[in-house]
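Weekly puzzle thread! Below is a chain. First person to post its structure in token form gets bragging rights.
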Amino acid sequence: MAISVVGHANPDTDSVTSAIALATLLNAQGQEATACMQIAAADLNPESTTVLNRFGLAAPEMLSDAAGKEIALVDFSDIAQGPANLDSADVVAVVDHHKIGDITTNNPILFRAEPVGCTGTVLNKMFKEAGVAIPKDVAGGMLAAILSDTVNFKSPTCTEDDKAAVADLKAVAGVEDTEELFMEMLKAKSAVDGVPAKDLLFRDYKDFDMKGNKVGVGQLELATLDQVADIREALIGAMEEVKADGRHTVLLMLTDVVKEGTDLVVLSDDPALIEKAFDTKLDGKSMWIPGMMSRKKQTVPNLQTAFGC
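Winning reply:
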């Protein structure tokens, strides 16, 4: 049985390219594997589409139901972020860079999670350790993912390992100007014109279990907050719709990459709890948090502490 390598729901560039990279590595090691994602190629976010096109990579296959399949997870280990029936699949590997989630297995598996800025960085090490050369197109995808996840090294999640991986991968991929690559991705990622508000909310969105409370956190990385000024109320409307579907809290991080901070839009059953989490008072439905760039390192841990996780 072929191993289906899949990233989290609402896949970002790291989730997509890491599925491709791990499947490539497994195949090179004699294990049949297929790169997958939980959406159709037509629904892929603009940044990831740009990356796949730039480096000539085929989009992963769609996988919506994991029942009865051998599954390898990349860029997540939380059941809630996986395909349907993940709990009845045979999870054979996890490669990640987030906190350990609630996936359990009946047998020992390859489980590799490192405190770095991107799963692509972990995979770069795994290729090296296995003595397997990374194909040029795959290296390009991994490179783009690291630049995206670390916000071109500006994110607090960025480590020296991420910078070393970029140096390795840019040489393999034949990319001389990583700044130009990052700006091309940012232009695609921050494009909002004509995109429905709910699609923007879900462009980079994850649900978390906070001590029995369902909490959703989305993020839009922008060149300037002015890009969403005219659609702010529509975004809040989309958040209200999503929150009504059984969520305690829905947050949307409007991250200004240039100013290096986030306008955090908040809808919550307990706004005071969110204020406590970030030690900042709400101004209406939002709060400006300077220096906030990372959901993984600066948003989710604060929420877990506030919820008593």
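Puzzle host: Confirmed. Bonus trivia for everyone else. The chain has two domains: 3-187, 197-307.
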